[in-house]
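TA notes, week 10

Several of you asked for a full example with nothing omitted. So below is the full record: structure tokens for the whole chain, then the designed sequence directly under it. When grading your own attempts, check the secondary structure regions first.
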């Protein structure tokens, strides 16, 4: 099924059913996804055989001396906005002066707080704090696979449908922009890429960190956000 056709055919019940359907645990190495992108030619070739260690997207990394530091639980909302022409995905661009992930494109979310009953509660709280989207417009459908970041967060992506009309009030400290991308764009595998960059050294050997990217016009969506979107693609297109 073509991406546009699939996107138009998806209802909130269909998305919920695919999220709830049994699926094998996703290996942190993400080797199957990488093989798919390599086969499609959507990956950089220079890292093959050049580095003794390649960290795959979503795999856990601890710098020397911090191997036993536990991950910090976090959650993000993956908001599917129910538009007339099909779902769109709501994303934010972080402000340029933040201490971490400045200027990057992300989902609303953050670390879980003790008062959060679960990942969904944390994602809804953070979404309201960051962009002013109230829970009354949001229906949680399920979760994707947890994603580990190089900044030591274990992130649970909470997928939800957002019903318009709604007003947004971005936090000016954290959010520079809010925009929507058609879900069909993310469901087209031709738009998925894998890239790499040097992460550091371990025992005198350089480590390469692989990451996903899904450029959209002038927006460069990469890292954990792109990884979660590719996971969404895999869940929604599973047969």
């Amino acid at each position: 099924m073509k991406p546009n056709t699939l996107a138009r055919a998806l209802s909130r019940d269909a998305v919920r059913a695919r999220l709830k359907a049994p699926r094998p645990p996703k290996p942190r190495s993400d080797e199957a996804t990488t093989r798919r992108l390599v086969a499609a030619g959507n990956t950089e070739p220079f890292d093959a055989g050049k580095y003794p260690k390649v960290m795959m997207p979503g795999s856990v990394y601890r710098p020397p001396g911090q191997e036993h530091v536990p991950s910090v639980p976090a959650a993000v909302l993956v908001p599917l906005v129910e538009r007339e022409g099909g779902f769109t995905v709501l994303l934010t661009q972080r402000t340029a002066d933040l201490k971490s992930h400045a200027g990057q494109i992300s989902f609303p979310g953050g670390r879980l707080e003790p008062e959060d009953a679960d990942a969904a509660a944390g994602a809804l709280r953070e979404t309201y704090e960051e962009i002013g989207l109230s829970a009354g417009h949001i229906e949680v459908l399920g979760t994707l696979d947890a994603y580990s970041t190089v900044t030591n967060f274990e992130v649970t992506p909470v997928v939800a449908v957002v019903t318009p009309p709604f007003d947004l009030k971005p936090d000016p400290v954290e959010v520079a922009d809010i925009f929507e991308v058609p879900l069909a764009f993310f469901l087209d595998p031709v738009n998925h890429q894998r890239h790499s960059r040097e992460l550091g050294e371990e025992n005198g050997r350089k480590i390469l960190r692989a990451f996903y990217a899904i450029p959209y016009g002038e927006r460069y969506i990469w890292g954990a956000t792109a990884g979660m979107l590719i996971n969404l693609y895999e869940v929604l297109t599973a047969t």
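The helical segments are 3-9, 12-20, 31-40, 119-131, 183-186, 223-236. Use that as a sanity check on your answer.
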